[in-house]
Amino acid sequence: MYSLNAPVPGRVAALAGELFPELVGFESIREEHSVLLKRLGDDDFAHLAERVRRELRGAPAVEAKITGIDYFAEPPRGSQPVVYLSVESPGLRRLHEQLVDAFGAIDGLEGDDYVMHVTLARGGGDIETARALDEREVEPITWTITELRLWDAKHGEAARTIPLPA
């Protein structure tokens, strides 16, 4: 499975590290952090990469901001709950909508259902821990997204980087 992700700055990773002691009860704690922009499927990589590049032609660098901690009590897929950092970015949302127009939306996850976020942990944790994290205040973190990464989930690595402006 390939996806298009926006990297996050070290300050976001540092925040995730600060929260680690409160996440240890979850089944899975993310070590790599990013904002998932669009799931792209399992098509031929070269074809997919070229199509994404064409769709993003002219796309500008965009601003993003971590605004707090939230959770999905019952995510549409996978184990629950999911604790995440909330992300606001009108520019990234526009790019998501553009890619959904081009590639289609995955029901329950994209299009109108898309919630921009950075996953911290999922599964096995109790909902009370998720709620307590949701109430915790965090300093906003703002950054400029100057590249997107085509992520290869099978190999757990970025397969291609697309600079912004594209």
Task: Name a few traits of the molecule.
166 residues; alpha+beta; Cyclic Phosphodiesterase, Chain: A; 5-stranded antiparallel beta sheet; globular; Cyclic_Pdiesterase
Note down, in words, how this protein is organized.
By secondary structure, the protein is α+β, with helices and mostly antiparallel strands. The chain has one domain (about 1-165): Cyclic phosphodiesterase (Cyclic Phosphodiesterase, Chain: A). About 30% of the residues lie in helices and about 35% in strands. It has helices at about 10-25, 45-55, 90-105, 125-135, and strands at about 1-5, 30, 35-40, 60-70, 80-90, 115-120, 140-145, 145-150, 155-165. It has a five-stranded antiparallel beta sheet with strand order 2-6-5-4-7. It is globular and about 45 Å long. The mean pLDDT is about 95.
What's the layout of helices and strands?
Layout: E1 2-7, H1 10-23, E2 28-29, E3 34-41, H2 45-56, E4 62-72, E5 82-88, H3 90-103, E6 117-122, H4 127-135, E7 141-145, E8 147-152, E9 157-163
Antiparallel strand pairs: 1-3, 1-8, 2-6, 4-5, 4-7, 5-6, 8-9
